[in-house]
Amino acid sequence: MADTDKKDKPDLARGIASGDLPEGAMIEGTLGGDTVLLLRRDGAVRAIGARCTHLGAPLAKGIVAEGELRCPWHHARFSLETGEAVGAPAFDPLPCYRAEERDGHITVTGRREAAATPAARSPGKVVIVGGGAGGHACAEWLTRAGHGAAVTLVSDDPDPPYDRTFCSKQYLSGKATRAATRLAPESVHRGEGPRLLCDRAVSVDLGAEEVVTAGGERLPYDALVIATGAAPLRPDVPGFDRPNVHTLRSLADADALIAAAETARTVAVVGASFIGLEVAAAMIARDKSVTVVAPEPVPLANVLGAAVGRFVQGLHADKGVTFRLGRRVTGFDGTALTLDDDSRIEADLVVLGTGVAPRTDLAESAGLALADRDEGGGIAVDGLLRTSASGIYAVGDVAAYPDPRSGRRLRVEHWVHAQRQGQHVARVLLGEAAAFAETPFFWSGHYGTSLRYVGHAGSAEDAEVAGDVAKGDFAVTYREDGREAALATCKRDTQSLEVEAAWDREGRAGI
């Protein structure tokens, strides 16, 4: 992100008065061509890069908790001491600088080298099945620790790892290039980096400790990480098998949608899910006529509550999206949807946002324990994200893990949460023994309005609203069994960060 107001920031080479940086304060300044964040914590002055390495958020609007700087947009975390990106979705470190305080004056004198990371134990041979959020994050962390050559990343996606959130947001709407979706340069998967094998894992030989691929390779492992994710559901509705009916999960799916939108005039989105509504926004950005059809009376009400759901619906309606709510699709003839009241909706292009199901086939064939349906299904794992078979882990959409705050097993379908689980397994393989206790987090963007959601609530029935939902400035707390379980915010990023940090501490304490 380019800075357009550097002239308004202090030149930290010349410095500032010590009194201008009281305890707890953060000041953004410049050092040559760099934008630097100066802050004082526990009496010590530190200087660190001022822009998140994920998407460039201004870190001065974030918070510091437990020695980490937390990003206000997407909740990435950086070590204040080393600049290391210790929590997804950021992977690249922040630069660190030398800050000096003398005679009531603070100056920044240049960049400093980060302290060397202590050597970790070898994880042995690691096979990761799935190149999505969790799989890539696990491989990236192991590579960062110097063990990339020990990792084989098996992915049935023809593209190298990419940011799947772009598929329904920036890339689909035409605001980002295909290249911008890449999570790592191509060179990462060469030389000493992890091997990327574009193939499909078809079975696990538990006795031999090998993964067998469709291409006939047998991959020995000391540790196996299953990160197979989830697959879109396609309802059994007549006509939903037609070529102009699409689901959206992969970059190739987004390519197909973009190509189809070139000639489509009318787009129908079936399902008022987050993905469905983000697709609707992307199609509006492409000047299409968009109708959203869903059985519920208010979009997202089951997750966010009726008030916030109506607010989100209003954002879309103001941009021209038509809603047909409380209705089900009974058929599609290639040019129009038929609804359960016999009305018809013209549609050159149909996009299904009707949910996903965890991809457990590989785990089932290996005889791994699965979670109960009322726990969301998926692969059952323990606090270290280990499955029922020795040496095998599961992360991301496919993993049902014990949540220390609620005491329940959860399966969470969030991009950042999958990344953090992948990173956690990497740390376990490198010798750390703490159980996974990070608070789920996701964000959703709608025409420049962003919602943040931390925690996990099974329903939105018990909710307390603070602020003005209609004006888009609010915080909604969701409770389960009398305890605070989740928080949704709009224009209250600091509160979202503070609650997430508090719940992280609570989760670690509850283990």
Question: What would you say this structure looks like, in words?
Answer:
The protein has 511 residues and is of the alpha/beta class. Helix content is 19%, strand content 32%. The chain has ten helices and 36 strands. The strands form nine sheets. A six-stranded antiparallel β-sheet has the order 1-10-9-4-3-2, with no helix packed on it. Strands 13-12-11-17-29 form a five-stranded parallel β-sheet, with helices on one face. A hairpin with a 6-residue loop joins strand 6 (68-70) and strand 7. Helix 1 (133-144) packs parallel to helix 9. The longest helix is centred in the last third of the chain and has 17 residues, at 493-509. The protein is globular and about 80 Å long. The model has no long low-confidence stretch (mean pLDDT 94).
Overall geometry comes to: globular
Counted by DSSP, the helix tally is 10
- Mean of pLDDT: 94
- Count the strands? 36
The biggest beta sheet reads: 6 strands, antiparallel
Give Rg in angstroms.
24 Å
Helix content: 10-25%
| Broad structural category | alpha/beta
Strand order of the largest sheet: 1-10-9-4-3-2
The N- and C-terminal alpha carbons lie at a distance of 39 Å
Low-confidence stretches: none
How much of the residues is beta strand, in percent? 25-35%
Summarize the structure.
With 511 residues, this protein is an alpha/beta fold. The protein is 19% helix and 32% strand.
Features:
511 residues, alpha/beta, six-stranded antiparallel β-sheet, five-stranded parallel β-sheet, 10 helices, 36 strands, 32% strand, globular
